[in-house]
Structures are given as structure tokens and as C-alpha cells.
Amino acid sequence: MAHNLTLNLRAESLIEALPYIQRFRGDTFVVKYGGSSMEDESQVECLLRDVVFLEAVGINPVLVHGGGKAITAAMRRTGLTSHFIMGLRVTDKNSISIVEKILDTKINPRIVSIIKHFGGKAIGFSGKAIFQAKHLPLLAVPSGPRDTGFVGEVHKVQTEEVQLAIKREVVPVISPLGSSVEGYALNINADTAASALATALKASKLIFVSDVPGIMLNPSLPKTLVPSITCRMVEKLIKDGTISQGMVPKVQSATRALQEGVAKVHLVSGGRSHCLLLEIFSDAGIGTEILP
């Protein structure tokens, strides 16, 4: 009896997912993957199996990955200290070479390899081939204007190679780096890179996978998770300090994408098994959806 009940529940889950699969078939989803779950092999594999599932049912996933914790650890091993301003990593000349190495020769190939292991097709891109970037202006902080060094903001997105991969049903995996006019690398916040890419690709969804389950009115109380919210309410929560620190550039990237044509943005926790499938293909969802 218990076995039959389990089988019935599985069948019901598939039926629940069916209208979403039908609705989103052929759509492009940009997934930004970051946070501490990237350090847990089982969680990485779980997330990337979701990505393979999306591709298998006719959705076009495009993955932009972070690597903050791995970069911090690599810097520490070389005696460098990580500093952040308004959620952005200060990147000097010594740091940018470490950032490039970790993102483009460690994390990116690893993600591509795992997707292929689970039967998907993937191709890795350095963000330098995708994002034309310019230096981030000085940041206004209480102590005075601060320079973040080799940190950039996206000026232009070159989508040709990404669109070609999508056409071939291959998952593009992209690092958050940009190329300056002078030709050197700039570190780009992965959230803003994913937002710019989603806009350029006219994606129907932008999904942020990180350490947090979504927007919470009280970060220490999971029950205060907001399942659905508008851009106007997001701005209000930033102003009153409910949304702060590293969440600010994330939700600002979300609202910018919505203002520029992306239909919906989702925030989910990478620590939750099959977070993408549960958020996209279930009626209740598990994170926060942000609407225009």
C-alpha cells in the first residue's frame, strides 16, 4: 500500500509539472548559480541535474556561475585579504588574476563536466567573450568615495555564441568576467552579469540560486519568507533596511531585468534539493518570485 501511495505521489508531481512544461517549452531561462552550496558536491550535482532536466523538456537554460567562496579561499592561500563594499568584492591587480583563474579554469570546466556526466550538453564561456565592460564608478560610502579596482559593469552583451549554443540545444555556462576596452579582465558581480544577459537574450525567467531561500522580512525567521513581491515593494524594503548588504545588488539586478523585459525573477536556495524544479514546476514554489 505504501509503495502504491509513493508511486501515486510521483505521478501527481509529474501531472502538476505538465502545464508548466507545456507553457515554458522553447523559453530561455537564465540561471545565476552562486553561494556556499557550490562547495558541496552533492548539492552541485543536484542543481545541475535540474538544469539537465530543463534542457530535456525543451527549455533553454543558460547558466551564469559565481565563485566567491572559492575565490576568497584562493586569495587567503596567497596571503591576500578579501574586502567588500556594498556587496562587491574589491579587486586589485593581484586579485584579478586569481579571480580569472578560479572562475575560468576551475569552476567553469567543473560545471560543464558535471552537466555532461548527467547526459546533458554544455559549453563553457569566459565572460570576457560575452560581456564588454567598463570600470565601475567610485562608490559613495559614509567614509568617502571608494574605488573597487578591477571591478566592472556590463556595457554590452555579445549574445551570438550563446544563441548559437541554445540553437544547438547546448547549455551555455558563463563566468562573470568582462573585457574592458583596453582588453584586460574586469570582475563583474555575477548577479548583474546574469541580469544583463537575461535582458539581452529576452529570457522569460531569471533565477538566482544562492544561500538564501528568497526575500525574508526577518532573515532569522524562515516563516517570514515572501512568496511573491513587486518591484515597488522591493524598493521600499531596500529603503527601510529590510533588504541589506549582499542582497541589495541581487534584488536590484532583479528589478532592472524586470524593467527591461524579463517576465519574472525567482530567488531560491541552492541548499534545497531540486530547488529549480520545485520552484518552476510546482504550484506553490519554494522561494520568492519578483514581478514587475
* Class derived from helix and strand content: alpha/beta
Mean pLDDT: 92
* CATH architectural type of the domain at 23-210 and 265-274: 3-Layer(aba) Sandwich
Low-confidence stretches: none
Number of strands: 16
Helix content: 40-55%
SSE order, as H and E?
Answer: HEHEHEEHEEEEEHEEEHEEHHEHE
* CATH class annotation of the domain at 23-210 and 265-274: Alpha Beta
Rg over CA atoms, rounded to whole Å, is 19 Å
Proportion in β-strands:
15-25%
CATH topology heading of the domain at 23-210 and 265-274: Carbamate kinase
What is the number of helices? Answer: 9
Distance between the termini: 46 Å
CATH superfamily of the domain at 23-210 and 265-274: Acetylglutamate kinase-like
State the strand order across the main sheet: 5-10-2-1-13-15-16-14
Q: Profile the largest sheet.
A: 8 strands, mixed
Shape: globular
What report would you give on this structure?
There is one protein chain. This protein has 292 residues and is α/β, with parallel strands linked by helices. It has a domain at 23-210 and 265-274: Carbamate kinase (3-Layer(aba) Sandwich). 41% of the residues lie in helices and 23% in strands. The chain contains 9 helices and 16 strands. It has helices at residues 2-24, 41-56, 68-77, 93-117, 160-167, 190-200, 231-239, 247-259, 275-280; strands spanning 28-33, 60-65, 84-85, 88-89, 122-125, 131-135, 139-141, 144-146, 151-157, 171-174, 177-179, 185-188, 205-210, 228-230, 264-269, 288-291. The strands form 4 sheets. The chain has an 8-stranded mixed sheet with strand order 5-10-2-1-13-15-16-14, sandwiched between helices. Helix 3 packs across helix 4. The radius of gyration is 19 Å and the shape is globular. The N and C termini lie far apart (46 Å). The mean pLDDT is 92.
